[in-house]
Amino acid sequence: MNETTIVAAAALQQAVSNALAAAGADAESVSTATRAMMHASLLGIDSHGVRLTGHYCAMMKGGRINPRPVPKILNRTAASAILDADDALGHLAGYRAMALACELAAESGVGAVGVRRSSHLGAAGAYALAGAEAGYIGFATTNTDSMVALFEGAARFHGTNPLAFAAPVPGQKPWLFDMATSSIPMNRVLLHRSLQKPLPEGVAADANGHPATDADAVDMVLPLGGTGYGYKGAGLAGVATLLSAVLTGTTLDPDFIPMYGTPDDKTPRNMGHFVLALSPDHFAGRAVYESGILRYLDALRGAPAREGGRVMAPGDREWETLARREREGIPIDPDTARFLGFA
């Protein structure tokens, strides 16, 4: 069985919330995890959407993730802080960190928050977007467990280590750019396994580092740029590790307990994240910023396209997907449909 099930957004959101609550999560954990996963599923980032609900529930029941955390703010200065997440769901940690970064930026122009003792962050763009929706330029990143080969490497080293940016646009949806530093996230490999679909060429490799398209044969994914220019993706993955782990004193990519495939569901993973908020008011000023980004986006969207092509700004495709899925429903894979009671 490899067909998706289409579920109305409201019904899916309720099912996710119910499952998290049944696993013991407190109200804030339920609301933030549901918000972040629905963000991903509505915008077409299915690898980091509601399909992860079952995993998070299992980890809360096992003890790896604290379903009722009490996060603490440490080392707070005028423009920076550390958030100790108390082994919370990464979604709660991410949203709290960005809210704190915006609070700092409101006073200092810049707010930088490192997170420690967290868990899987989900789609990093959810937290960058939260900053943009509050009126700030937002950035979010995290390092993850090793599943990406180095350039010309034959073993896992970095995680998929996303970099996400978002910026407010007056009268429009925010500019939103959310990318993995790998060619694809490993969760997309798992999604393709569930759907029994082959992967594109040049994005993943088997246990010997040889390119593979059969999702069942994949052991690692390749850095952004693939076999020819993967040094770029590998370098960017290092940026995520520098900010999320080295700067915060948390776990390096090769030292993580794997997210999947281990019998240990009790030991917390001590994941680190990093978020940044920039206040346009403290730089050229809000009016100048808004005029500039509108002119920039008008020029970008009006740039010549090749025959049959279409020039889009970061986020345009995602906002179109959001509108369509709000109208038509969200596709979920067979495993997720079974877990959430839609199959």
UniProtKB/TrEMBL annotation:
Transmembrane segments: none
UniProt xrefs under InterPro entries: Mal/L-sulf/L-lact_DH-like_ah, Mal/L-sulf/L-lact_DH-like_NADP, Mal/L-sulfo/L-lacto_DH-like_sf, Malate/L-lactate_DH-like
One annotated GO molecular function: oxidoreductase activity
UniProt KW keywords: Oxidoreductase
Record-linked Pfam families: Ldh_2
Family: Belongs to the LDH2/MDH2 oxidoreductase family.
Name of the protein described by the UniProt record: Ldh family oxidoreductase
